[in-house]
What does this fold into?
Amino acid sequence: MEAALALVSILGLILVIFILTHIRPLTEDEVKVLGTKRRGKQIHRYFSFDRSQFGANKEFKRRMKPSGKFYRVRERLHEFPAIAAALLKYKKHEWIIVAFERNKEIFFAWLNKGLDRSSVSLHLKADDIVKTASANNATSVLTFHNHPNPDPNYLDCTKPSKQDIATGEYRSSLLNGCGVNLASFVCERGRHYQYLLSPADSFLPLKHIIKEISEVNGKSRSKNLALHIERIF
It folds into this structure.
């Protein structure tokens, strides 16, 4: 009992010290740290995807043009990766989907068939992706391609190749420069695996979040404490 009381006393003292040392306003550097953390959480919530396995629209899947075509679609952002994975399930060649998002809705998508099991070969040039995104005021571009797995019991085809990563970095540099986000996925056996998320600086801009924090910072001790708790934990 005495040991328990001593432990409670120590914890209480630590709590009091923490409160007393964190009722001051955040410094400029601490505001930036908190702003970056808060922006990261907001981006994560925006790009939060359904992990369920969806059934494919058989009619749409039948009409997918191997040589490539744009399609008008209307799907919710958080569901679309599962929809894309369902469309690419059982494909024996690599296919690629380039989807365009605005207001958390996929409104436009390009699909084409690759050359073989290991070459995705997008028939849409990177500049054309950027032009399409800009012309339609897209917030984000999402890319999906499948990795056909000849032996699922022994092979793991859920990881991106070095070429996938390099291509994603190249596309993100072009799109981010135009204020467009990029998210890229590998699809295997009807499931999607995200390997890249590159938000543009203009998306949920850090300066606006820092301004929101600065307007509250220093207003009261309780608000200062709340900001410190958010920053630390």
Remarks:
- Residues 56-198 form a domain with the Cytidine Deaminase; domain 2 fold (CATH 3.40.140.10).
- The first strand starts at residue 69 and ends at 76.
- The radius of gyration is 23 Å.
